[in-house]
Design brief:
CATH architecture of the largest domain: 4-Layer Sandwich
Strand order of the largest sheet: 4-3-5-2-11-10-12
Number of domains: 2
Distance between the termini: 44 Å
Number of strands: 25
CATH topology of the largest domain: Glutamine Phosphoribosylpyrophosphate, subunit 1, domain 1
Helix content: 25-40%
Mean pLDDT: 90
Shape: globular
Largest sheet: 7 strands, antiparallel
Strand content: 25-35%
Length: 486
């Protein structure tokens, strides 16, 4: 049964999380724990693949949450071996929003050099072109995922080893990718040259771990070593340890700045900086840039909480839990009838009426996408008796879609793409609406001089329209880049 989240169409979703381990007595149990820590990156489905010397490759792929599918001893025992990789998925490509079991990673292929499995975080912006070319040359696809292209490219490569073929395949891919792969005795990890999506490296005893975020290392007690560098490929074996290669032309990194704003867990570390602290500092910048007279600062939980704390600390306005989140709404206990759907955001959030009534309230949230949820939340706060409602947003206006692994609506459905800030304020029915500036966001994540417009330090295309990699497939379908659109 899939989770019912009828209000989630107005939030951004990361595509997935990846995890891999080598040198562990029971790799599958560590992979399951790591995926549990990465569940926020994808809730539609998950998969684990392992290899045992005596019995070969073993795989389990399931729809739904890790906790419901990969916690039983029966499942873990069916995945023996000292090496394994895993994946949690939120669909952004193929049959969007219609994940089927055949789309669930890791993907596996039996090549001339042996079996190989991959888990991919991100999006290939030339996937449709690659897919057409591969099909014309005889490849048979089993899924609707762009990630499967990598397996087929490896199969057609003439590289002398699987890491060579992996490297060769990725050189043909455009877009964003953090990939964890494995053979029977090798764990491989790679980030694209721009390092758009995250990947970290850790040690667990004598074993090695790769994961999308450091929180996945923490849950298994692994020691964080470093981030896999943009454009780096690491090949790890128990016999030789870690070998590092740089197969791509060096480029200025463009890590996704929205990882700081929303996607990563607040207890993770990115670029040597606490995600929580970065979000709190966004709130500080927001308070400096957009002051307002008010009685109470409240967050839209949970993603807006660190920024709300920072806003309250900088402004001197008290912070309070004005909105309470239902922690158990992930899976509904009622069939999704129209009546239940119409409850919308109330299934997830409830206003603390005793605290809100009569107050001038600052609501801090991470972003405004379509605006439907923000409007409902603002109305709930008004209905609870708030004297004034002021929205403060911990990111710039989301005006452009993402093609690098984030599930954003098409541009015409993004509120900021066709409304001014004042028009958005009127649409949301709030007393004021302000966003942190792009420079303010950059300062909050450690760039004291703000954004370098000549050479941006991050990928911020969803705010600026400045795409570091041209979305080839979308351009072929008629999508216009920023300059052409303006």
């Amino acid at each position: 049964m899939r989770p019912l989240l009828p209000f989630d169409g107005d939030t951004l979703h990361e595509e997935c999380g990846v995890f891999g381990i080598i040198g562990a007595a029971d790799a599958a149990q560590f992979v399951a724990l790591g995926l549990h820590a990465l569940q926020h990156r994808g809730q539609e489905a998950g998969g684990i693949l392992t290899h045992a010397p005596a019995t070969g490759f073993h795989a389990a792929r399931r729809m739904g949450y890790v906790r419901d599918n990969f916690t039983s001893r029966e499942v873990i025992d069916s995945l023996p071996g000292p090496i394994g990789i895993g994946h949690v998925r939120y669909a952004t490509s193929g049959r969007k929003g219609q994940t089927e079991l055949r789309d669930v990673q890791p993907f596996f292929g039996e090549l001339a050099l042996g079996g190989v499995a991959i888990s991919h975080n991100g999006n290939l912006t030339n996937a449709e072109a690659l897919r057409r070319e591969l099909i014309e040359r005889g490849s048979i696809f089993q899924s609707g995922s762009d990630s499967e292209c990598i397996i087929h490219l490896m199969a057609r490569s003439m590289g002398r080893s699987i890491p060579d073929r992996f490297e060769d395949a990725l050189r043909k891919c455009e877009g964003a990718f953090s990939v964890v792969a494995m053979t029977k005795d090798e764990l491989i990890g790679c980030r694209d040259a721009l390092g758009v999506r995250p990947l970290v490296l850790g040690r667990l005893g004598e074993g090695w771990v790769l994961a999308s975020e450091t929180c996945a290392l923490d849950i298994i007690g692994a020691r964080f070593l470093r981030e896999v560098a943009p454009g780096e490929m690491v090949v790890i074996t128990e016999a030789r340890g870690l070998e590092s290669h740089f197969p791509f032309r060096p480029q200025n990194p463009r890590f996704c700045i929205f990882e700081h704003v929303y996607f990563s867990r607040p207890d993770s570390i990115i670029g040597g900086r606490s995600v929580y602290e970065a979000r709190r500092q966004i709130g500080v910048e927001l308070a400096r840039e957009t002051p307002v007279e008010a009685d109470l600062v409240c967050s839209v939980p949970d993603s807006g909480t660190p920024a709300a704390i920072g806003y309250a600390q900088e402004s001197g306005i008290p912070f309070g839990m004005g909105i309470i989140r239902n922690q158990y709404v992930g899976r509904t206990f009622i069939e999704p009838t129209d009546q239940i759907r119409n409850m919308g955001v109330r299934l997830k959030l409830n206003v603390n009426r005793a605290l809100i009534a009569g107050k001038r309230v600052v609501l801090v949230d991470d972003s405004v996408v379509r605006g439907t949820t923000s409007r409902k939340i603002a109305q709930m706060v008004r209905d609870a008796g708030a004297a004034e409602v002021h929205f403060r947003i911990a990111s710039p206006p989301t005006s452009w879609p993402c093609f690098y692994g984030v599930d954003t609506p098409e541009r015409g459905k993004l509120l900021a793409a066709h409304m001014s800030e004042e028009e958005m304020r009127a649409h949301l029915r709030v007393d004021s609406l302000r966003f942190v500036s792009l420079d303010g966001l950059y300062r909050a994540v450690g760039e004291k001089d703000g954004r370098n417009d000549a050479a941006p330090q991050y990928c911020d295309a969803c705010f600026s329209g400045d795409y570091p990699v041209a979305p080839s497939d979308m351009i072929a379908e008629g999508f216009r880049m920023k300059d052409a659109a303006e």
